[in-house]
Amino acid sequence: MVRIGKGSIGLRSCHGPRWGGRGALRMASFLALALVLFASCLLDPASALAQCTPGAPPSGGTVNCTGNPSSFATSGLSTLTVNVGPNASFNGPFSASTMNQIDVTSTNSNFQSVTFNAIGLVNFSLTGGNVNNGITITNGGSANVTNSANINQTFTFSGTGNFTLFNTGILNPGLVVTGDGTHSITNSNFIWHRQRQQQRYHQSRHTQDGRRNTQHQQRA
Question: Which domain holds residue 92?
Answer without folding.
Answer: 48-188
